[in-house]
Amino acid sequence: MKKSLLVKLAFTGLFVLIIAYISANHFQDTTTFGDLPFETQQADTVETLTDEDGGLGDRSNLLQMDRRTGFKPVTILRGLFGMLVLVFIAFLFSSNRRAVNWKVIATGLGLQVLLAVGVLYVPWVQFFFEFVGNIFVLILDFTKAGTEFLFKSFGTNNIELALQNFVVQILPTIIFFSALTSLLFYLGVIQRIVKAMAWAMSRLMKLSGAESLSVAGNIFLGQTESPLMIKAYLPKMNKSEILLVMMGGMATLAGGVLAVYISFLGGDDPVQRLMFAKHLLAASVMAAPGAIVISKILLPQIEDVDKTMDISKDQIGSNVLDAISNGTTEGLKLAVNVAAMLLVFIAFIALFNYLSVGLGNLLGVNENIAQVTNGRYEELSLQFILGYIFAPVMWLIGVDIQDIILLGRLLGEKIIMTEFIGYVSLSELKAANLFSDPKSIIMATYMLAGFANFASIGIQIGGIGSLAPNQRVLLSKFGMRALLGGTLASLMSATIVGMLIG
Question: What are the boundaries of each domain within the chain?
Answer without folding.
Answer: 72-322+455-487+497-501
